[in-house]
Model the fold of this input.
Amino acid sequence: VQLQASGGGLVQAGGSLRLSCAASGSTFSGYTVAWFRQAPGKQREFVAAIRWNSATYYTDSVKGRFAIARDAAKKTVDLQMNTLKPEDTAVYYCAASQSVILSSIGAVGAYKVWGQGTLVTVSS
Done:
């Protein structure tokens, strides 16, 4: 599977954006799909993930504001981001793998396939 991330942009604090991760060459069936982000000068960090059984996981800083979901019709995994804050500014990457154990769901190294990233900028 190959991944294509889209939907980034510039938004004011308090606004919303919806990121999409599209699969080509395969579907997301059986995959755990995650979103990570990397701010300038910082390490890539876990944001959210959805497992093959649709269970979802979030880092604490986005709980209640972000929602990850599969769109079967569009064959995408989307990240709805609400109440955005300047500290959410980063390049967002989607990643996928078929064999992610629960204890590693937030680990960069657990994912074998990565998209190219999409920039989200939140102005104050």
Observations:
- The chain has a mean pLDDT of 95.
- Residues 102 and 121 are 30 Å apart (CA to CA).
- The radius of gyration is 13 Å.
- DSSP finds no helices and eleven strands in the chain.
